[in-house]
Design a protein that fits this description.
3 helices; alpha+beta; 3 strands; 100 residues; flat
Amino acid sequence: MTDKMLIDAAVAAMARAYAPYSGYHVGAALLCADGNVFSGANIESASYGATVCAERVAFFSAVHAGERDFRAIAVVGGKGGVISGSFPPCGICRQVMAEF
């Protein structure tokens, strides 16, 4: 899997985000050691505290499927379907990634 393919998977995931409050859609694609890719998108809640970021959705899906060995993650985001540049994962997601 090339970096571009992983980024393309994150862009595709971004289209499935549910962001009625911020309008900011985020997609993530997580590459596992065995070549499997798990994607995720942010899912907002009116309470904001119950909002889930794209990176966690991808990690949770992968772990639920039995994956534990990860190689790379691509994260993209922006408003109106337009990617607004690169940004690091949020502090919560950095901690989740560090645990694996």
